[in-house]
Design a protein that fits this description.
The protein is mainly beta. It contains 5 helices and 38 strands.
C-alpha cells in the first residue's frame, strides 16, 4: 500500500507540474476567441483541411510547440507520439515501430516500416534519422499504411516533417543556450522577401556538449555532441499560379564517445583480468571511446502550378548521407584480447553511404464541388553501401580466444534499389454529411548488389568471396472507406487499407551455418527475404465538445501482417548466427485516444493514451528456423500515455509569462522478436518543464528549461546472446555478459532569444 501511495503521489505531482499545455495537436494556444481551441490545419490528404475532418489517424505537432518544449531532435519527439516504440543502439540506427510495423534491419537495401518524409521527400533509411529539427511548420504523424497518398510505400506509418516556407513576413532571430554538461548552443534564423516575387530563408544551429559518462579506462568523457545543421530556401512566385521552391540542407556531426554500459557485474574472468565492475550509468569502463563522423546534405526542387481544375506538383530531390563510426566497443569491458594490441571485441570502423534520387509527379484535381482526386507517379533510385571492419577476438581463457579468427575481419555490401509506383486517391462527397474515399497503388521494386568478404573469419565471412544478387517484386494495394458527419462537431469514419514492403537481402549472416542445412557463405547472401504485406482496418471518431473547448479523437485499429520481415542475432549450439527472413503471420489491434482541453484563455491541457495488443502468430518462413508464436510484437508498448499543458499570462507591465510541461510513459516493449526478458525497456516518467518570459516589445525571450527532469535512464539498445557466448569463461559456461545503451541523463539550462523587428 505504501508503494502504491508513493506512486500515486508521484503521478499527482507530475500532473500538477504538467497542468500547463499546448494541445495534443500541440498548436500554440492563442486564438482570437478567448476560450476556443484553435483549428488545426493539415495536409495529410494532399490538401489543406481541418484535422477534425480527416478520416486518418493523424497526430500533429506544431513548430511553435516543438520550439517552446525544447524538442530539439527526432529522439525528443518520439517519446510523445502515441503508441510509438523506438530504440537507438547507436546514432546511426534508430529503429521505429508504429502499430507493430517495425524493422531492426539497417543493412543496405532494407526498407523501414515507418517512412520519414521531409517536405514530401522520402528520407530513405533509418541510418539518417537522427537530425536536428529546424524551423518547422509542423510534424504530421500518420499511422497505418499510406501508399495511396505518398510517393513511397509504407506499412507502419509516416512521420512527415514540414518546414516553414519563406513569405512576405520578415522573421529574424538569434538564440544562445547554456546548460549543464557543458552545453552550448547558438542558432539563427532570417526569412523574408528578397525581391518582387522572390523570398528566401536561412536557419542554422550549432550544438556542443561536454559528455555525461566517464570512461574509467581512458579518462575520457563520453556522450559529447558536436553537431552543426543548416537549411536554406529560395521561393519564386512570379504569378498567382506558379510557386517554385528550391531548398537545401546540411548537417555535420563529430560527436565523441559511445558509452556501453556493462550490465553483468563482475565475473571471475573479469577479476582475473583486473576488469572492474561498474555499477553506475554515469561511468563505464571500456577499451575504446568511440566517435562519429556523420554528414548529410540534400537539395530539392518543388514546383506547383495551378491548372484551374487542380494543382500540378513536381518534387525532385537528391540526398547524400555518410556515416563513419570508429572504435565502437561492443562488449563494454576494459579487457584486451589475447593480442594486446586489440580490444576484445569492437567495430574499429563502420562506414555507411546512402545516395538517394527521387522524383514525384502529382496532380491534385478538383472535379466540381464534390470530387477531390490525387494522381501521381513516383520514382526512387537509391545506392546504399556499407563497409565494416570487426575485431572478433575473445578475452584470454574465453571460448572465443581459442577459436580461429582473423583480426579485423572485413565485409562490404553494396545495394542498388529502384522503385516505381503509380497511385491515386479520391474523395467523393455523396452528400454534405457523407463522403466515400478510396485509392490504388501499384509498386515495383528492383534490388541488386554485391557482398564482399575480404578476410576469412567467423562473424560475417566463412570464406573469402564476392557474391552478386538481384531480385524484383511488384504488388497492387488498395484503400477504401467512408466518413459521416453527424453534425458540425462530430465525424465518424471507417476504412480498410493495404500495405506492401518489398523483399530484400541482408549480408549479416553471410558467414554462418544454420541448423537446417540451408546455404551459407557465398550462397546465403543471394537468398532474399520475401515482401511484407499489411491489411489494416480502422474506425474513428473526431469530435468537438462544449462549444469547441474540448476535442476528443478516438481510433480503433486492427492490423494483420503477412511475412513480417525480421533480423535476429541468435546464439545456438556453442556458436552464433544471424537469422533473417519472414514471420508467417502477426497481428495487432488497439485503441488510440487524443484529447485537448481549453480550460481558460490562459490554460490548455492535452493528453493521449494508446493501448495495443499485438503478437506473432507464425514461425519463420526463411532460414533460421525460429518460431516466435505468441511473442509480443517488438517495439510495440501495450500502454502509452502522455500529457502536458501550458499556462500563458500577460503580466501588468506588458510582458508575458508562459509555463509548460509534459510527461510521457510507455509500458514494457521488446527490442527483438525473441522477447528476451532483459532485451526490453519501458519509458517510465519522462518529464520536461519550461518557463519563458517575453518582454513587452516581444523582442526578448528568456527560457529556463529542464529535459528528463526525473533523470530517468531508459535502455535504447541491448546485446545479450552474442556476448554471452563471446565472453564466456571456460569454467563459467552459464555466465551472461549483457551490454546496454541508455538515454542521456537530465539536462537543464537557459535560452536567450532576440527577435529582430
Amino acid at each position: 500500500m505504501a508503494a502504491y501511495n508513493r506512486t500515486c503521489l508521484k503521478y499527482f505531482i507530475i500532473i500538477l507540474a504538467c497542468a500547463l499545455v499546448v494541445p495534443v495537436n500541440h498548436v500554440s494556444a492563442q486564438s482570437e476567441e478567448d476560450s476556443v481551441i484553435e483549428e488545426i490545419m493539415v495536409t495529410a490528404r494532399k490538401k489543406e483541411e481541418s484535422l477534425q475532418d480527416v478520416p486518418i489517424a493523424v497526430s500533429v505537432y506544431a513548430g511553435a510547440y516543438l520550439e517552446q518544449s525544447r524538442i530539439d531532435d527526432v529522439s525528443d519527439l518520439l517519446a510523445q507520439i502515441p503508441g510509438v516504440g523506438y530504440g537507438q543502439p547507436m546514432k546511426s540506427f534508430t529503429p521505429l515501430g508504429i502499430r507493430g510495423g517495425s524493422s531492426q534491419d539497417d543493412y543496405p537495401g532494407a526498407d523501414p516500416n515507418v517512412a520519414i518524409f521531409i517536405d514530401e521527400v522520402y528520407l530513405g533509411t533509418t541510418t539518417a534519422l537522427e537530425f536536428d529539427l529546424l524551423d518547422l511548420e509542423r510534424v504530421e504523424v500518420l499511422r497505418g499504411p499510406q501508399g495511396t497518398l505518398f510517393g513511397r510505400n509504407t506499412n507502419g506509418g509516416i512521420i512527415h516533417f514540414i518546414t516553414r516556407n519563406p513569405d512576405e513576413e520578415l522573421r529574424a532571430r538569434a538564440s544562445l543556450t547554456v546548460g549543464n554538461h557543458e552545453r552550448l548552443e547558438v542558432s539563427g534564423l532570417v526569412s523574408g522577401q528578397i525581391a518582387e516575387g522572390v523570398f528566401g530563408s536561412l536557419v542554422a544551429k550549432a550544438r556542443d556538449t561536454g559528455g555525461y559518462s566517464k570512461n574509467l579506462a581512458t579518462g575520457s568523457m563520453l556522450g559529447k555532441e558536436d553537431i552543426t545543421s543548416m537549411r536554406g530556401k529560395l521561393r519564386f512566385m512570379p504569378n498567382e499560379e506558379l510557386d517554385i521552391i528550391i531548398s537545401g540542407d546540411y548537417m555535420i556531426d563529430n560527436s565523441f564517445g559511445i558509452p556501453q554500459d556493462f550490465l553483468g557485474g563482475q565475473s571471475q574472468l573479469m577479476r582475473d583480468l583486473g576488469i572492474p565492475a561498474v555499477n553506475s550509468l554515469d561511468e563505464v569502463s571500456q577499451d575504446l571511446d568511440g566517435h562519429y563522423d556523420r554528414d548529410s546534405w540534400g537539395i530539392a526542387a518543388s514546383i506547383s502550378y495551378d491548372l484551374g481544375v487542380g494543382v500540378f506538383h513536381s518534387i525532385t530531390s537528391y540526398r547524400d548521407y555518410k556515416n563513419e563510426m570508429y572504435d565502437y566497443d561492443f562488449d563494454g569491458v576494459n579487457g584486451k584480447s589475447s593480442n594486446p594490441l586489440h580490444s576484445a571485441e569492437a567495430f574499429p570502423y563502420q562506414n555507411t553511404e546512402v545516395e538517394t534520387f527521387s522524383q514525384e509527379i502529382r496532380v491534385d484535381w478538383e472535379i466540381g464541388d464534390r470530387i477531390d482526386l490525387v494522381t501521381g507517379f513516383y520514382y526512387l533510385d537509391q545506392k546504399n553501401r556499407r563497409d565494416e571492419v570487426l575485431n572478433p577476438n575473445g578475452l584470454p581463457n574465453s571460448e572465443a580466444s581459442a577459436w580461429t579468427v582473423v583480426t579485423e575481419e572485413g565485409a562490404d555490401q553494396l545495394v542498388n534499389s529502384n522503385s516505381y509506383a503509380v497511385f491515386f486517391d479520391t474523395t467523393i462527397d455523396v452528400t454534405e454529411q457523407v463522403a466515400v474515399f478510396g485509392g490504388y497503388r501499384w509498386t515495383r521494386d528492383e534490388k541488386d548488389g554485391t557482398f564482399f568478404c575480404h578476410t576469412e573469419g567467423g562473424f560475417w565471412c566463412s570464406n573469402v568471396f564476392e557474391s552478386d544478387f538481384s531480385d524484383s517484386w511488384e504488388e497492387p494495394t488498395w484503400r477504401v472507406g467512408a466518413n459521416f458527419h453527424l453534425n458540425d462537431d462530430i465525424m465518424v469514419y471507417g476504412s480498410y487499407t493495404e500495405g506492401f514492403k518489398s523483399g530484400g537481402f541482408t549480408g549479416a549472416g553471410a558467414g554462418n551455418f544454420d541448423g537446417e542445412g540451408n546455404p551459407t557463405g557465398e550462397e546465403s547472401v543471394k537468398i532474399p527475404y520475401e515482401p511484407e504485406f499489411t491489411e489494416s482496418w480502422e474506425a474513428g471518431l473526431r469530435s468537438q465538445w462544449l462549444n469547441n473547448r474540448v476535442t476528443a479523437n478516438i481510433t480503433y485499429f486492427n492490423v494483420e501482417y503477412k511475412d513480417l520481415q525480421y533480423l535476429l542475432l541468435n546464439a545456438t549450439g556453442g556458436g552464433f548466427q544471424f537469422n533473417a527472413g519472414n514471420i508467417g503471420y502477426a497481428k495487432n489491434d488497439g485503441v488510440e485516444t487524443e484529447f485537448t482541453f481549453r480550460i481558460t484563455e490562459d490554460i490548455n491541457l492535452w493528453a493521449n493514451y494508446t493501448y495495443q495488443s499485438g503478437d506473432y502468430g507464425g514461425g519463420a518462413s526463411n532460414y533460421g528456423g525460429d518460431s516466435f508464436d505468441g511473442n509480443r510484437l517488438k517495439l510495440t508498448p501495450k500502454h502509452s500515455f502522455a500529457m502536458g499543458g501550458s499556462f500563458e499570462h500577460q503580466l501588468p507591465n506588458g510582458s508575458t509569462l508562459r509555463l509548460s510541461g509534459d510527461w510521457s510513459e510507455k509500458s514494457k516493449f521488446f527490442f527483438a522478436e525473441d522477447n528476451t526478458p532483459d532485451d526490453s525497456e519501458k519509458l517510465a516518467g519522462l518529464v520536461n518543464l519550461q518557463g519563458t518570459w517575453t518582454s513587452p516589445s516581444e523582442r526578448l525571450e528568456v527560457t529556463l528549461w529542464a529535459k528528463n527532469l526525473l533523470d530517468k535512464r531508459d535502455k535504447t539498445g541491448y546485446w545479450d546472446d552474442f556476448f554471452q557466448w563471446w565472453l564466456r569463461y571456460e569454467t563459467e559456461v552459464d555466465y551472461i555478459a549483457d551490454v546496454g545503451d541508455f538515454s542521456p541523463p537530465r539536462y537543464f539550462g537557459a535560452t536567450v532569444t532576440w527577435h529582430f523587428k
